[in-house]
Amino acid sequence: MKSIAIAARILLGAMFIFSGFVKGIDPLGSTYKFIDYFTAFDMLWLHDAAFVLAVLQNIVEVVIGVALVIGLRMNETAWGTLLFMGFYTILTFILALTNPVSDCGCFGDALILTNWETFYKNLGFMVPTVIVFLYRKKYVPPFGTAGEWSLIVFASFVMFQISMHCYNHLPWIDFRPYRIGADIPQGMIIPEDAPIDEYHTTLFYEKDGEVKEFTMNDYPWNDSTWVFRDIKNVLVKQGYVPPIRDFSIISSEGYDMTDEVLADEGYTFLLVAHNLNKSDASGLKKAMDIANFSQIHGYNFLCLTATLMSDVEKIKSDLELNYEFYNTDEITLKTIIRANPGLVLLHNGTVIGKWHHNDIPNVELLKPNLLSFSIETQTTKSKNRLIYSLLLAFTIFALATYYFRIND
Q: Residue 222 has what pLDDT?
């Protein structure tokens, strides 16, 4: 039983750490998901609290995971795990029945699950949760009370710092379809043999004051005494959905420039500002240097926004911005980059660079070969993130190893 209890604890801990971490490095993505749920359940008054709640939930998940893996405060941890899993198992069952939001968001963009898949996942993890709870008083504490609480506070602090860093810059790992290296035109293609959506169609006809339901195979198409009243289509099997959809660039005159921009074999800078009314003003101004640089070297520079053009003109005038604005779907813009504004560099329709408005590159450091500059920049960032991640993973591993050594 001891081995089963330890395995259950490690399995649960790994799941919680993974879930909290992949969402914690994308705090804005978690915030958008909270807003989706608040909107679906008509809880608009909670929108302003979405960011705080998202960060807090991700920290709690990571802390529970670390506590489970190392074996910290197991009585409190087991209770917290049981309450957490119990609440979300019930919630995901309700979501599976009502389907207010198609993607649960429990693993961020790293792993997309339907509401039913999420419910079954939670139901499965309730087994190790119950085992850990029943065995909670038999685990041997690896440290004294002060040491245990110190590690819990430390884990909370580290996860908070990681989330804030990713919020003020960009997520350490980009799981979305617009990540660096993504070929946007290729991501929009639907294969010829791809499965299509399948629907169950119900037709409603009325005769002598009585309305009856029919299928497409038995409806009274040749009986004029029946009067058509309504039709209902229910999706029974979803077909192929391309990774990138709803991507378009529309000029203020209504001209669709999508194909033109994506087919350009040169470099194109896209300044993404999904809501100009809430965009960082200093970031919008810093982008003017990039716009001037682009004009000198013959590159494209476009600012994509979902803001009404009447508001765009006012903001453009107030900030004395010298570049042109184009319209794109707001959800698409939020998916492209987690910044408002954020800078994206395309080369022949492929994403080769992304920068938060806090990290917009100095034009004096830009090279004529922007591809080389982007690769060098991203390589440096990747090395730094890898070092930080390895140090964190090593710390958890060392503590877990110490726990097993003293409890062997």
A: 82
Among 330, 339, 353, 332, CA closest to 267 = 353
Please give the average per-residue pLDDT across 296-300, as a whole number: 90
- Asked if residue 372 has pLDDT above 90, the reply is no
Exposed, middle or buried, 403 (CB in 10 Å: 0-12/13-18/19+)? buried
- Partners of 200 in the beta sheet? 234
User: Which residue is listed with tokens 């520079």?
Assistant: 301
Q: Which two three-digit tokens encode residue 97?
A: 């029945």
CA 141 – CA 210 distance, rounded (Å):
71
Q: How confident is the model at residue 366 (pLDDT cuts 50, 70, 90)?
A: confident
Q: Which of 111-120, 146-155, 165-174, 218-227 has the highest mean pLDDT?
A: 165-174
3-class secondary-structure state, position 174: coil
Q: Taking phi first (over 0 means left), then psi (-120 to 50 degrees means alpha), and beta for anything else, what does residue 231 get?
A: beta
Residue type, 320: E
The whole-number pLDDT of residue 400 equals 61
Q: How far apart are CA 106 and CA 250, in angstroms?
A: 34
What pTM does this model have?
A: 0.82
**What's the chain's average pLDDT?**
87
Torsion of CA 222, 226, 228, 232, to 10 degrees: -90
Where does the chain hold its CATH 3.40.30.10 domain(s)?
258-377
**Structural fold of domain 258-377:** Glutaredoxin (3.40.30)
Sheet with strand 227-237: strands edge to edge: 210-214, 198-207, 227-237
Q: Give the Cα separation of 65 and 70 in Å (integer).
A: 9
Give the span between the Cα atoms of 202 and 214, in whole angstroms: 6
Q: What percent of the chain has pLDDT over 70?
A: 96
**What mean pLDDT do residues 276-298 have?**
92
Q: Is 313 helix (H, G, I), strand (E, B) or coil?
A: helix
Cα–Cα distance measured from residue 225 to residue 204, given in angstroms and rounded to the nearest whole number = 13
Contact 23, 162 (CB under 8 A): no
Residue from 79, 77, 70 nearest 400 by CA: 70
